[in-house]
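Pasting two entries for a bug report.
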Amino acid sequence: MPIIGPGYDDPEYDNYDPAWRDQDTPFRRWLVEKLTDAGSNCPAEIASIYAPANRYHGLSTTDLGNLATLASTTIDVVQAAHKADLADWTREQQLRDHPDLAVLDADLDRIRRHS
């Protein structure tokens, strides 16, 4: 299938990961839950549009407003979920860049659970 618009090797797509289209992320899960609770007929489809945008482009004020309306919540709540997802993503990147931190992170989690 031909690509309409810039190809994946174009600078516009720097750091774009095609797996984001269906990657399970905290924001995607949150969005599907909120859209389902709000009675949406297609929560997974809406999430598949906005979850990658959340990480790749960020969410515009218009996106935040649209999602708040669709999820029957406020812009501040959507923005908080967006920021939480970006924080999770940052942590993922740090662990990917420094795999030794994954072992330390698991040890710290274990210590916290047993405290």
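Entry 2 (this is the one that rendered wrong in the viewer):
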Amino acid sequence: MTDPHTETFVAHRTLLFTVAYEILGSASDAEDVLQESWLRWSEVRLDTVVEKRAYLVRIVTRQALNRLRTLGRRRESYVGPWLPEPLLTAPDIAADVELAESVSMAMLLVLETLGPTERAVFVLREVFAFGYGEIAAAVGKTPAAVRQIAHRARGHVTARRPRGTVSAEQSRAVLDAFRRAVGTGDLRGLLDLLAPDVLLVGDGGGIVQALPRPVRGADRVARVLTSARVAAIAGLLEPTTANGGPALVLRVDGAIDTVLSIHVETGRITGVYAVRNPAKLSHMTRENPLTT
């Protein structure tokens, strides 16, 4: 017979992982948070818990906040640009537009501009629709304070969040055209796909070679992407689904070398994100279920 603690935790595990990942932007750290949360949950007297889902999210949020503050200090010494850890996700995630947007590279980078408590409040309120009282218990604030934090975080994100996002089918079509243009060195064709202020970011973590700093602007990005070195590997890029949207993966000797995601707004690519840090690629080998 399954232990009641285990049964409840397993039933909500996908939700708990999604909450932790959206707060942290790191799947590996989200898994660590779930391990720490399980240890605390296993010691809870279940007859004292009225709403198990909310209680578990409270534990996970607290652990994620502790981890996020530690990660903030680590990222200050991170070598080169930092990108969220990509997740291999099922294609049907894209059907849930709000969930897909919330775990997209572009949105996770926006969330990085929030403070830890603001980020947790925004995620719990805007993505998972928890009440102010429930969020207050999770972040150690009063409901009135949480309401103010949520309002401030919502305004901050609204001013920076991606606009005019398109469907997964449209993104896939743009990604296919992008791969062809890069593979053939078609500078003109690539420029037609890129927004004027497109941003290219590479993350090697100081472990493997990557762009030392972000590249901004269609002309500069196009010239980087149509270089002989990039064109030589473009034919090896395979389509996949990462963070709820179309992406490309490069394998070298059977192992994942690079995950390349794009963000499309109003038919143009506004972001190109290439994750090469080997420590961030482990969650691209199997599908990661997500839910709200």
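Dev reply: Rendering is fixed now. As a check, the viewer should reflect this: The longest strand covers residues 255-265.
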